[in-house]
Amino acid sequence: MAAPGSPGRGSGSLPGVPRGPHRPRCRRPLRLGAATFPSGTASGCCAPYADVGIRHNDEEHAKALATLDGLLDVEPQPGTPEADELQLLALVIEAYEKARWPIGLPDSVDAIRFCMDRQGLTRRDLEPCIGSRARVSEVLSGKRTLSMRMIRALHAGLDIPLEVLVQEPRRRRQAS
To answer: Domain 108-166 falls in which CATH fold?
Structure first.
């Protein structure tokens, strides 16, 4: 057991971390999900926002967002326990949001249109990648799928990820 007043278990201070008005002595333990760490340890430092853990529902997610907002308002200095908690909480929130609301890959035609819009390209600018004007029109309307040559050229020319271009199209229109 640590001597009274020395840094260690239960003392509420960390070696090399000054106490002051912004770092009061804290004797409450830190909860990380199901694990509890005693105050004064490196894992159980006395951060005022000490409820970092895995989020299981939208209510816990909303509370975590409110806590994150509070930490962002404080603007902790890098290397402090508050900054570490902010980073950990942001990772927990990001993992929950990715699992709760996954974002799939865009449709290849939508990705091509997005790149055209972002780069200010016209259909004519796609002709070197896709082929004739009629073929560009067929691809953009969904009547024709992309060939391997088109996929390679669009990847190289528009920097569209290959996994977006090679996936099966979501919608196909019937040729009339």
So the answer is: 434 Repressor (Amino-terminal Domain) (1.10.260)
